[in-house]
Amino acid sequence: MEKTYQPQAIESHWYKIWEESGHFKPSGSGDPFCIMIPPPNVTGNLHMGHGFQEAIMDGLVRYHRMKGDNTLWQVGTDHAGIATQMVVERQLEADGISRHDLGRDKFIDKVWEWKAESGGNITQQLRRLGASPDWSRERFTMDDGFYDAVQEAFIRLYDDGLIYRGQRLVNWDPKLHTAISDLEVISEEEQGHLWHFRYPLTDGSGHLVVATPRPETMLGDTAVAVHPGDERYQAFIGKTITLPLSGREIPIIADDYVDRDFGSGCVKITPAHDFNDYDIGQRHQLPMINIFDRDANLNTNVPEKYQHMDRFDARKAVVADLDELGLLEKVDAHTLKTPRGDRSGVVIEPWLTDQWYVSAKPLAEKAIDAVEQQDIQFVPKQYENMYFSWMRDIQDWCISRQLWWGHRIPAWYDEVGNIYVGRSEADVRNKHNLDDSIKLRQDDDVLDTWFSSGLWTFGTLGWPQNTDELKTFHGTDVLVTGFDIIFFWVARMIMLTLYFMDDVPFKTVYVHGLVRDGQGQKMSKSKGNVLDPLDLIDGIDLDSLVKKRTSGLMQPQMVKQIERDTQRQFPDGISSYGTDALRFTFASLATQGRDIRFDLGRIEGYRNFCNKLWNATRFVLINTDGISRSTPDHWEAGAADEWITSRFQLVAMEVNQSFDEYRFDQVAQSLYTFVWDEFCSWYLEIAKIELADTSIPSQQHLGMRLTLLAVLDGSLRLLHPLMPFITEALWQEIASRTGQPKVSIMTQPY
Do 27 and 71 touch, CB atoms closer than 8 A? Predict the structure, then answer.
């Protein structure tokens, strides 16, 4: 055994043995226990949020594996429609090629080439974290079997009247030319303006003043709204406005939505370009005038002067023209939340367009009942309230995207616009008795990735086939996820699984917080407080630190702390903390539902804990040479032996209970306190004295040596789910002395 703890020397060595030996596969015996990995994007790289989530999941998986359960951790990646398409398009652009130059089929071939060469980097990074899923069952949301599941789900929902095609408002990305989900829209405060315009009454009796941060949209106004209880405007309700620049006559309506204290209390209504206005338009049956094209340039539904203008150029022109007409009353500075696409960075437009939708309300009823009846439980419980608030006000779900990479919608159109849904064109023709004279074209759109990932718990297990894996492991036991995707993924999995499987997808949803820096700030490149988990595991050399500091990726104070740690603790100049210290840090910070403040001081402390455990094992090995747990000689336990054994039993009970209650912080605290304070600081110090005392009978010396082995062996097993590498390496050293075959610590009972 090496004198000093060097994590790099043991981690790659043991992980390769674990994976090649098949230890991550279900045992085939015991009660089934299954966790589904939230599939990371195939384009992704490991970040601190991944690190925290995977450490928690792997801790649970290793715990249940050692408890004797038939354990499956199902792994896989998401095809990440927009992100992946952007990556490949950028590569083509570097060669002066666009996807349109290639055409759809050849572009898809290029994406698959990229996937084979560069995709899935994150799965290798997960291995560096010690993650122990069954890699032999790895799935991809675009693989053949899963593609079949997605197609089957769409067709069944369509045939059952729960999928339809319709025209509604969506978040439109004018750069990527696709609808995007709310989760892909980043709204941040920006400084702008609030323009106050006079809208003349048609009867010439005066005007109303409206305020807007988007003057160009006034060209699509179809009403002006006031609050029905606002006494200032009671006499105006039912009259009309002559819309400046357009000359259209539009009504003045009353609606409770209007905030009478905002601006003048009069609100312009543009149903085709604002989500709230859309709802008002539906209530009052207002016309919807779409004034933008797919590039967010103004179209032919506006006066000729503004047609084909960029939206922001049109804004300037509209303001100038209204000012010239004497209709600009004032301009105020205004802080507003501007929605931008998280991939493109451009301002998102609410845009009226034809898309595919799932009727969500019928699916939501059973999903609400499942949580109300406690068939699914949220941990912490308060997240049920967030779930209910979303589900009880659920809107129909837009599931189509204007991309090429993804699950192409299995719908075909004839020349007069009739829609036919089926598995292939041949299937459609056979299903609807269409002969070859009727020309068909397939829908160009693909499905939202949240639709395919909504089938994850059963699609990965072989559905729509009734496989043995599906019968054994579904519904799964626990989902580990962040609160930010409770609606986008968790709720949709519950709805779709109940519909197709008549079963819950999981029994428990463990919801964790966000990983923040030591001051509680969200980690971001712009703030310079980003930590890379692989840097913490493998080490950051001082040259790399300088680069991170000068590039702005890391704050100066963070750099200084790592420099101090490196100079003090790591003689080779590389601040390597190792996987186990990082994982133990994550567990210690996993207080239920709260955001995690990641302090470098904590990981340094747990690196020292690894050193302590390493040195304690060396002491035990030195003092138990030549004996084993199976030694037949008579031995006696002294008072210190009985004390440490009783403390170990109590800690084992605490740890098991904490695991079952998802209190990973308590697991870490109990084990740290026992190993450091009681086993190392007290019992080993007593052992040093007693084993050197020749007046103590040999039977008691033997009893102490056997107790040293037994408690260390048990402590390593208790620690293994949180610290897999060091516990494996140390357990292998003592296995023969404790009478156990040297297979793997993860095959031992917990």
Answer: yes
Ramachandran class of 2: left when φ > 0, alpha when ψ lies in -120 to 50, beta otherwise: beta
Max distance between CA atoms of the chain, in angstroms, equals: 114
The closest of 129, 59, 133 to 659, measured between CA atoms, is 59
Between CA 627 and CA 629 the distance in angstroms is: 7
Enumerate residues 6+ apart whose C-beta is below 8 A from 361.
Answer: 394, 396
pLDDT in tens, 659-694: 999 999 999 999 999 999 999 999 999 999 999 999
Q: What is the distance between the alpha carbons of residues 702 and 637, in angstroms, rounded to a whole number?
A: 8
End-to-end CA distance of the chain: 25
Tokens of 97: 């090629």
648 φψ region: left (φ > 0), alpha (ψ -120 to 50), beta (else): alpha
3-state class of 157 per DSSP?
helix
Q: Which of 547, 535, 513 is nearest to 665 (CA)?
A: 513
Task: Kindly tell me if the per-residue pLDDT of 550 is higher than 60.
Answer: no
Q: Among residues of the chain, what percentage have pLDDT more than 70?
A: 93
Q: Are 490 and 500 in contact (CB under 8 A)?
A: no
Show the tokens assigned to 591.
């207080």
Structure tokens that stand for 419 in this block: 């829609």
- Alpha carbon 487 to its chain's center: 11
> CA 413 from chain center: how many Å?
36
> Bigger pLDDT: 575 or 728?
728
Inter-residue contact 335 to 139 (CB < 8 Å): no
H or E element in which residue 551 lies: helix 542-551
Q: How far is CA 616 from CA 570, 619, 673, in A?
A: 20, 5, 15
Number of Cβ within 10 Å of residue 234's Cβ equals 11
DSSP three-state, residue 357: strand
DSSP code, position 613: H
Q: Is the peptide bond before 464 cis (omega within 30 degrees of 0)?
A: yes
For residue 733, count other CB atoms closer than 10 A to its CB. 16
Contact 525, 553 (CB under 8 A): yes
Check: CB of residue 536 under 8 Å from CB of residue 499. no
Task: Report yes or no: 738 and 713 within 8 Å, Cβ to Cβ.
Answer: yes
| CA gap 40, 51 in Å, rounded | 12
- Cβ pair 463, 497 in contact under 8 A: no
Bridge partners (DSSP) listed for residue 45:
none
Amino acid at 75: V
As given in the structure block, the two tokens for residue 168 are 């509604």
What distance in Å separates the CA atoms of residue 317 and residue 355, rounded to the nearest whole number? Answer: 32
Please answer whether residues 263 and 256 qualify as being in contact, where contact means their C-beta atoms are separated by less than 8 angstroms: no
- In terms of C-beta density within 10 A (0-12 exposed, 13-18 middle, 19 or more buried), how is residue 618 classed? middle
Tell me the Ramachandran region of residue 22: left when phi exceeds 0, alpha when psi lies from -120 to 50, beta otherwise. left
E strands in 303-387: 328-341, 349-358, 377-379
- CA dist 244 to 202, 207, 303, 407, 551, Å? 11, 11, 11, 46, 50
The pLDDT value given to residue 595: 81
> Phi-psi region for residue 28, left (φ > 0), alpha (ψ -120 to 50) or beta?
left
Tell me if residue 155 falls in helix, strand or coil. helix
Q: What is the DSSP string of 399-418?
A: -EES-SSS-B--EEE-TT--
Tens of pLDDT, residues 159-195:
999 999 999 999 999 999 999 999 899 998 999 999 9
Q: What are phi and psi of 92, to 5 degrees?
A: -65, -40
HEC-encoded secondary structure of 231-245: HHHHHHCCCEEECCC
The SS3 of residue 463 is coil
Give the model's pLDDT for residue 470.
Answer: 97
User: Looking at this protein, which amino acid is placed at residue 609?
Assistant: F
